[in-house]
Amino acid sequence: MDEEYDVIVLGTGLKECILSGLLSVDGLKVLHMDKNDYYGGESTSLNLNQLWKRLRGDEQPPEYLGSSREYNVDMIPKFMMANGTLVRVLIHANVTKYLNFKAVDGSFVYNKKKIYKVPATDVEALKSPLMGLLEKRRARKFFLFVQDFDESNPKTHAGMNMDTTTGRELIAKYELDDDTIDFIGHALALHTNDSYLDQPALDFVKRVKLYAESLARFQSGSPYIYPMYGLGELPQAFARLSAVYGGTYMLNKPQCKVEFDENGKAIGVTSEGETAKGKKIVCDPSYLPDKVQQIGKVARAICIMSHPIPDTNESHSAQVIIPQKQLGRKSDMYLFCCSYAHNVAPKGKYIAFVLTEAETDNPETELKPGVDLLGKVDEIFYETYHRFVPTNDGSADNCFISTSYDATTHFESTVMDVLSMYTNITGKVLDLSVDLSAASAGDEQ
């Protein structure tokens, strides 16, 4: 391989595929390699036989579960906020033509041992059984403030400086009780812990507003959308985009080894005795293990069921967030459910996940509070995976490494990592100022 590439991307996980697509659109010469013979890396979707082989080592799943190829089981299950950043990236890159989305039926929160629909507007606050009458009125006032909030118009800031007022101070102004704060902070603003309470309130308010705006987009029971046939469609859509703009793809390339010069800068990748030269290397943590450190692990249960999650209004697709305080934990727990309605399972079958940032070495015990909410399951698998973050300076060694996927069942943290990497690689910020109302990204199929 005599030619030199601007960027060599290793791994076909979702983050790497988004980056190769965006960099190709920018006119960079991109080579994309993967040691696997399939797209998606850690974020792939598996059919039933692949799932069994991976987690049971047994090629033959029971016949009553139906056809293997009708299953698309996401290994990193996440929904997209309808007005969120990932949808803006999809529209910016014009990959929506390769994808069909459908709204997710329900968004729920666990509170005092029960599952409730997440109220996100002043109207929903007044109807919600989550709160007593006086609290409903206080919550309604808070939601009206958020709905009217305009970052560029100080008259909508209720006399507060949103860059210095903390989340805690903002909430105190509306006298909301702890349970209300819990569901607003974790199920609407999607914070994974309570540190946001002591940070400037601007980000918190913008997150709650994004949730409400996403909810209004389809008038469905949730602010989320999800691709038909599962998330495995996303990496392939960005791979197609990269190819259209001249990107080169090579799957099933064993032992992709990053080569460095005497100054410790990456200069290319060797596989099967051939070296491709590249100015910059983009990869997931598995390709450069000596440049990452472990920061935790995710515990998950993967369940096949014949019914929706109980108490979710018969939702074929739903997210349930269990805030950390409700279980006396340091991190939230997430329930994710999808079904044949999104073409990820045969008719009558549902795929559910229970995920959390692991705090023990016993996933079965740790995930029990979430698994118990699922009702009867046909099959259940437990698994943990380690989470890594890069420790290197990409500008010094030309290596740009993604962080591992977290336990959240929404894409907000994932896409922020992609945008940060894009800026580090190109030196510019991706312009995502698209008109979502005119775009077709979430068009319900």
Task: Describe what you observe in this structure.
With 445 residues, the protein is of the alpha/beta class. It has 3 domains: 4-44 and 232-292 and 389-429, FAD/NAD(P)-binding domain, CATH 3.50.50.60; 56-105 and 294-387, Guanine Nucleotide Dissociation Inhibitor, domain 2 (2-Layer Sandwich), CATH 3.30.519; 118-218, Guanine Nucleotide Dissociation Inhibitor, domain 1. The chain has 14 helices and 19 strands. Strands 1, 2, 10, 11, 12, 13 and 19 form a 7-stranded mixed β-sheet that branches. Helix 1 runs parallel beside helix 9 (233-244) and helix 1 packs across helix 14 (412-426). The radius of gyration is 22 Å and the shape is globular. Mean pLDDT is 92; it is low at 438-445.
